[in-house]
Amino acid sequence: LEMSSLSEKDILVLRLDLTDRSSHEAATNNVLKHFGKIDVLVNNGGRSQRSLFVDTNLDVYTAIMELNYLGTISLTKHVLNHMIQRKKGKIVTVSSVMGIMGAPLASGYCASKHALQGFFNSLRTELTDYPEISIINICPGPVQSKIIQNVFTENLAKSIENSGDQSHKMPTDRCVRLTLVSTANDLKEAWVSDHPYLAVCYLWQYAPTWAWWLMNRMGKRRIQNFKSGV
């Protein structure tokens, strides 16, 4: 086994609330004070959703955008200022396959991930004078995590009762490895997913009419399962 060469001074853990945007500048400065630089920012905070739009309070949509979208771009803004001074860095954002397609029961989550895709793809075009600053969007499909236990539902006070089986999802360590490979190789966008979800991504990109047909069929079954508590 290889011994880690990391010492205590190489590790700094700070509590961070993405929705407390006024704290992001101080958090960034604390990291810079400790390490002197930030090479990589990984935006990996967010919550999903499982509810039908017609049943969902609008304040749930506000909360999703505050966390998934505005919280992410707030933190990015402070770290990017430093990277522009250094003319170097990588900003890795964990989006989702939901950032490139639509799906039932996740309209607000899809919207927030589409927003991230649009924002970072636009930001990349503003950084052409900084070729060593990479904007990398990672779009995972289903991955084993606690995201289901923490989903938004029809209202902010309600949590999900049945998180379901996760064994069919991609193992977390494989998703992390593929994310690191994508980051090391400066991929603008990486779809990190197993089939059949990956195949649906390709359909959505290259044959959207077929994708809509398929999603309507799959979506109907998914909504029926949701309503019957499966």
List keywords for this structure.
230 residues; alpha/beta; four-stranded parallel β-sheet; globular; oxidoreductase activity; DHRS7 reductase; oxidoreductase; SDR_family_member_7; Sc_DH/Rdtase_CS
Written overview of the protein:
This is DHRS7 reductase. Keywords: Oxidoreductase. One of its GO terms (molecular function) is oxidoreductase activity. Pfam families: adh_short (PF00106). By secondary structure, the protein is α/β, with parallel strands linked by helices. The protein has one domain: NAD(P)-binding Rossmann-like Domain (Rossmann fold, 3-Layer(aba) Sandwich). Helices cover 45% and strands 10% of the residues. The protein contains six helices and four strands. It has helices at 24-35, 58-86, 107-126, 172-184, 197-206, 208-227, and strands spanning 40-43, 89-94, 133-140, 189-192. Strands 1-2-3-4 form a four-stranded parallel beta sheet, with helices on both faces. Helix 5 (197-206) crosses helix 6 (208-227). The radius of gyration is 19 Å and the shape is globular.
